[in-house]
């Protein structure tokens, strides 16, 4: 995936990543978290600004640093990195707002051919059914896994893997 | 000044590791995790490790 990304670092378990966004608002520390959902092998992807003065996530501001595509590219690289170290896991993602979800959807659609070289992406439109990602559909949630696991993932989503 | 050169870590598995112990022991985005769990619940069973 040849996208412009920020230099990024991983923690020892490759379940959290940090990078610094540089833009019109200056330097902003970003953290990407892969949190276990409690479901076997399924992790939730979330990212945001980290406020070092309070040692916590700052969810109240919209950074608008003018580099959202580069931030998203960097986050996408952490997905690839996470999947390298955790090849049997699934990554779930959805946006905190409709506009962010739409941005993720556009990003996936724009890079789908490249993504599908290694991964399989499923999308859900109303959270009541999943399908393999089709460009143009208004998905609100996404699941990513390695493509060699596609059949097993699909069976799980169909509740066939009991 | 931003560099447009491809970072060395872009090869999978080569991202540098650093101490992030300041993140240990907590969920950074609890509301987002909760939302994810609600969406996924109809499709996945709870891990036996949770019982």
Shape of chain A: globular
Order of helices and strands of chain B: H
Distance between the termini of chain A: 35 Å
Provide the structure class of chain A: alpha+beta
Query: For the CA atoms, what is the radius of gyration of chain A?
Result: 16 Å
Descriptors for this entry?
heterodimer; A: 162 residues; alpha+beta; 9-stranded mixed β-sheet; 27% helix; 33% strand; B: 51 residues; 1 helix
Structure description:
Chain A is α+β, with helices and mostly antiparallel strands and 162 residues long. Chain A has helices at 68-85, 98-110, 112-115, 150-157; strands at 8-10, 16-23, 26-36, 42-51, 56-58, 90-93, 119-124, 131-132, 141-146. In chain A, strand 4 and strand 5 form a beta hairpin. The longest helix of chain A has 18 residues, at 68-85. Chain A is globular, with a radius of gyration of 16 Å. With 51 residues, chain B is an all-alpha fold. In chain B, 22% of the residues lie in helices and 0% in strands. Chain B is built from one helix and no strands. The radius of gyration of chain B is 18 Å and the shape is extended. The chains are: A alpha+beta (162), B mainly alpha (51). At the A-B interface, strand 1, strand 2, strand 3, strand 4 and helix 1 of A face helix 1 of B.
Summarize the structure.
Chain A is built from 4 helices and 9 strands; from the N terminus they run βββββαβααβββα.
Strand-helix topology:
The complex is a heterodimer of chains A (162) and B (51).
Chain A: E1 8-10, E2 16-23, E3 26-36, E4 42-51, E5 56-58, H1 68-85, E6 90-93, H2 98-110, H3 112-115, E7 119-124, E8 131-132, E9 141-146, H4 150-157
Parallel strand pairs in A: 4-6
Antiparallel strand pairs in A: 1-2, 2-3, 3-4, 4-5, 6-9, 7-8, 7-9
Chain B: H1 30-40
